[in-house]
Amino acid sequence: MFEKAIEIGMLFDFYGKLLSNKQHNVVEFYYMHDLSLSEIAEQLDISRQGVYDILKRAENRLYMYEEQLGLVEKFNLNKYKVKHILKHINVIENQADKLGSDDIKDNTKKIREIVLDILESNQEGK
C-alpha cells in the first residue's frame, strides 16, 4: 500500500489538475491527508461506495495519463541522468585534486551548481 501511495502521489503531482474536482478532492483526501473512505464520504456527503468508485476511476485516469504522456517516467529518467552527471563530476574533481588543477575544479564546481539547480527546480516544478 505504501508503494502505491507514493506512485499515486507522483501521478497526482503531474496529472491531478486533469481530474474532475470531485476526483481531485477524493484522491487528495485519501492519499495526501490519509482520510478513510468513510471520513471522505462524510465530508463530501456521499456514500462510502461512492467515494470508493470515484477513487478507483481517478486512479485509473492517472495511470491512463501516464501511459499516454509518460511525464513521470521522463522525470525519473532525467533525475537519474542528472545524478549520473554528478557522479562523473566527482570523478573529475578527484582527478583535478591529484593534478592540482584549480581551473578544472572551478569549472566542475560551476557544473555542479547548475546540475543541483536543475534537480531542485525539478523537485519544485513537478
From TrEMBL:
Superkingdom field: Bacteria
Lineage, broadest ranks: Bacteria, Bacillati, Bacillota, Tissierellia, Tissierellales
UniProt record similarity statement: Belongs to the UPF0122 family.
Protein name: UPF0122 protein L21TH_0984
Matches recorded under Pfam families: UPF0122 (PF04297)
Function: Might take part in the signal recognition particle (SRP) pathway. This is inferred from the conservation of its genetic proximity to ftsY/ffh. May be a regulatory protein.
Organism for this UniProt entry: Caldisalinibacter kiritimatiensis
UniProt cross-references to SUPFAM superfamilies, sorted A to Z: Sigma3 and sigma4 domains of RNA polymerase sigma factors
InterPro entries for this protein: RNA_pol_sigma_r3/r4-like, UPF0122, UPF0122_fam_protein, WH-like_DNA-bd_sf
